[in-house]
Amino acid sequence: MLHLTENSQLGGQAIRRVVYSAEAIQARVEELAADLSRTYTAADRLLMVGTLKGSFVFLSDLVRAIDLPLHVDFVLASSYGAGKVSTGEVRFLYDPSAEMKGRAVVLVEDIVDSGATLNRLIPRLGAREPTSLEVCTLLHKHLAPVDQEPRWVGFDAPDEFLVGYGLDYAEDFRHLPYIASL
User: Fold this and answer.
1) Quick check: is 3 in a domain?
2) Cα separation of 101 and 130, whole Å?
3) Is residue 66 part of a domain?
4) Domain tally for the chain?
5) How far apart are CA 52 and CA 151, in angstroms?
6) Which residues pair with 135 in a beta bridge?
């Protein structure tokens, strides 16, 4: 397994510093899962919808730690391409196929920064008439207002370009077990 450390390079980009260790992330994921397990019941028919590709590692760890029956689906939305700054244009490449009407839905994001993806997804998913629609994000930069603030936030993130634990730069760095700054 490739394990990059500070000042390591991949794809021409250097890691400046480790922002959240693998241990800190896992501890926080367990806390979020415990709160989700207390919030919902089996009767809520919980559906966790992960935003691809960035949330897949977080979502995987999160759902395995939730002590409830649940279903998982995905939405593939992108506003970055190969750059470090959001284009502001959100493209939907895959829409969830799971029935949402009458279910508790939690949208699982890797990071909320510009808010563009979240602001486009909430009305799109809400139109499917879930009984509730909440957001759980691993990272929140608080850079721009969002139409619906996440109910669960793993970490308030610095205004830096972050990679690892599912987050990428031009598809590199997703595999890192920690979150680092480029």
Assistant:
1) no
2) 4
3) yes
4) 1
5) 20
6) 107
Candidates 180, 177, 181, 182; CA nearest to 58 is 177
Known catalytic residue: 156? no
Q: What is the CATH number of the domain that holds 107?
A: 3.40.50.2020
Residue pLDDT, tens place only, 37-93: 999 999 999 999 999 999 999 999 999 999 999 999 999 976 655 555 555 566 666
Active-site residue identified among 110, 113, 159, 172:
113
Strand partners, 94: 76
User: Which residues 6+ apart lie within 8 Å of 18 measured at CB?
Assistant: 5, 6, 178, 179, 180
pTM of the model: 0.87
Neighbouring CB atoms inside 10 A of 16's CB total: 13
Residue 80: how many other CB atoms lie within 10 Å: 17
